[in-house]
Fold:
Amino acid sequence: MKLVNRISPKKYEIKGKIYSEARKLVPKKINISKKKLKELYLEKKISCPKIAKIYRCNKNTIQQRLQEYGIKRRTRSEANKVRHNLNIPKKELKRLYVEQEKSSNDIARIYSCSPSTVRRLLRECGLKVRTKSEARRLLFNIHIPKKELKNLYLGKKLSSPKIARNHKCSPGFIRNRLREYKIPIRPLQEALPLSNRPKHPQCNFNGNPEKKAYLMGFRQGDLHARVASKNSSTIFINVGSTKPELIKIVEQSFSPYGHIWKGKPTIKGIVYISCSLNRSFNFLLIKKDLIEGWILRSSKCFAAFLAGYTDAEGTFCLCGDNAVFSIKSQDRNILYQIRSKLVDLGIFLRPPQIARKEGTLDTRGTVSNKDIWAIFMHRKDSLLKLIDLLNPYLKHTDKQRRMKIVKNNVLWRNKKYNNRPGTKWYREYLKEGIKI
Structure:
């Protein structure tokens, strides 16, 4: 079978005319003599793109002519000099770089070139280029005398980052100056607290021993104290509770000393509160099953400690018609110390006993990981003495209200039974050597 060409002869004629017209539009070969090109390129030092604009052609065409005529092309550095017209005399370069102390970047902006080109010209002129540290010092205009730096670093105890921010440079630069001036640099443990300044203002603890004892007692119960890191200057106090009275105690106790954050109640009604304090509250980081000696030696400090411990773990209540005071916790030794000190003060109660064993569930369904110990006080005279002891220091409003109910109950019972003393535990006290 023969292939039939589907294009008609007329279409061939039309295409031929289009091609012929297109050929007319194509520019003819550029006529530029070797002498003229040599004059423009070598003598007048005109670049290839500019010569191409004169002859209305592409720069590649000019480059081809240079190759055909055997004219040596300029190197990139020579081309850059021609393009940017970098004819900077040595005298002018010395005036800008050495006398006026301008940087290579500043000179590059003046002559519309790159900083590396300026540095190359400096080397060609025999001028010494600055080192990186010298350039940085000049760039930031840092001139810190030894006396001033010593006063800032040792006198005012400013950290190297703080000094660096004031002088608009890096902390490393300040440390280099300290080494040059032979000023002893602080060890890491001293430097970190100075550089890690808290976001919110913090105040030192006022040092009141009774208030300190109260906070230590309160800490043994509900407070959680921690530091972000070993060398951190901030102590965080965290508490979560459903009791608004307890949250109020935390807020009132720590708000004068640092920032307080309080969240909204959760679905279960728990409110979380957090406080950021400085290192003057280091005593809150220690949580041991032990009351410190200085607290036990002072009746007022002991009363404050017991009040804080009661606000966290204690209870005043009525069991039927009888008033009871109790404290339940895992701190066996602390409860024994509390009982011993109360007996010394003439407030009698029985020794601590196990209220709930390890691994058992409480009413809320929480499993105890240790034995829960408890002390109970039923004696009317002891309850009245205890109330007088705790009343100046107790802060929990609900427990203050319950304490008044207990006191009224004891007074009512004394009136009813003509102040008759109880004799239930006399023999037990005598066995222990306690005289009533």
User: Anything to note?
Assistant: The chain has 21 helices and eight strands. The longest strand covers residues 322-329. Residues 221 and 312 are 5 Å apart (CA to CA).
